[in-house]
Amino acid sequence: MTLPGRALLSILVAFSAAACRARVGPESQAAPPPTGAASATPSVAPPTATAPQDVEALLAAGLANVSFERLEADVQALAAIPTRHVNSGGIRLAADFLLEGFRQAGDHVLPSEYPFPLEFGGMVSEQRNIVARIPGWDEAAGSILIGAHYDSRTVSIDDWASPAPGANDNATGVASLLEIARLLNDFRPRATILLVAFSAEETGLQGSRHYVVSGVPEQEGLRAMLDLDIIGNSAGEAGAGTLRVFAGGGPGSSSLGLATWLRGVAEAHVPDLEVLVQDQLDRPGRYSDHVSFFEAGIPSVRLIEDLEQTELQHNADDRPERIDAQYLVRVTRLVLAAAFELSEDPLRFMSADETP
User: Which terminus of the chain is more solvent-facing, meaning fewer CB atoms within 10 Å of its CB: N or C?
Assistant: First the structure.
């Protein structure tokens, strides 16, 4: 994956400016909010009613406008931070970048941050989950959540200084969140859509676990969670047409129903991407943030490339040039289509054929 030097420079300049504003602006001098509370009040009141919308037309336009260039640029910008380890300064820069990205997505995308304390490797830090909220017009419909972690690590989980660009794991996931936020700005969903970038996934799911126990999912009436983690197809052409979706609970579970429903969404809206439903919570010995929600009883799935290249994970080789940005476009289209459809009928997957 390549990006013209001028475009990358403009991204990094904007990123640096955003980071500087975060460090010296008025908000940075305010007392931190209580643990688990959002640090920003939405600037636009949630809608109480909605004018008729042509949802199919909005969805078609959104699918057509998923941008290869924007996805590529966001992956490049995040991977340009030497490491996003939770004990490094890079994790704060990445959080600032994501918060600014959600702010720039549009007037109807309401960004906030949820700080939480973390003790890891003998160091104590404040981490942040970064949230973009697209308010729904029907409070009774609840919400759906699309999440991705933005921290990275190298071979040793305690090594916070060595390079860990984390392009595929997981700049791809959060780049997809940013693109989806931009494309949902003109949509007035029935159910609220939450886009959440989690910190501290690599160190034991602390970010998503904190989000769950803080009561936010219960307060929002959360119906389903989609987790984007390693969606850049580092295998190249061999894996370009398939995506694994992991779901725990076994036959008859709502999570497996959600995964099976996603397969149908791909068939209808992204025919060049085949969803391979995996009837297990995750790969053996592995995990991601969907586990936190699954354990809380919320239907949850993990989206991940099919032909995973583990030798390119958790080291300095996880670089942007190994990402297939066209594959990332296809996965983003799938998740965008799911966001449109789930937000109109948050429990539609309950009736899906759950046969893998």
Answer: C
Q: Which of 26, 148, 16, 163 is nearest to 92 (CA)?
A: 16
Q: What is the pLDDT along the chain (356 residues), one digit of tens a residue?
A: 433 333 443 444 344 334 333 332 323 223 333 333 445 434 444 444 556 789 999 999 999 999 999 999 999 999 999 999 999 999 999 999 999 999 999 999 999 999 999 999 999 999 999 999 999 999 999 999 999 999 999 999 999 999 999 999 999 999 999 999 999 999 999 999 999 999 999 999 999 999 999 988 888 999 999 999 999 987 777 778 999 999 999 999 999 999 999 999 999 999 999 999 999 999 888 899 999 999 999 999 999 999 887 778 888 999 999 999 999 999 999 999 999 999 999 988 885 555 55
Structural domain total, the chain: 1
The sign one gets for the Cα dihedral 202, 203, 207, 210 is positive
Q: What residues are paired with 226 via a beta bridge? A: 146, 301
The CA–CA distances, whole Å, from 47 to 151, 152, 330, 346 equal: 33, 36, 31, 18
Distance CA 171, CA 318 (A): 10
| Domain span including residue 159 | 5-351
Query: Are 126 and 118 contacting, i.e. CB atoms less than 8 angstroms apart?
Result: yes
- Give the global pTM: 0.86
In a domain, residue 205? The reply is yes
In a domain, 287, yes or no: yes
> What distance lies between CA 234 and its chain's CA centroid?
18
Closest C-alpha among 296, 277, 342, 306 to residue 136: 342
* Count of C-beta atoms within a 10 Å radius of residue 218: 12
Q: What angle do the packed helices 55-64 and 325-344 form, to 10 degrees?
A: 170
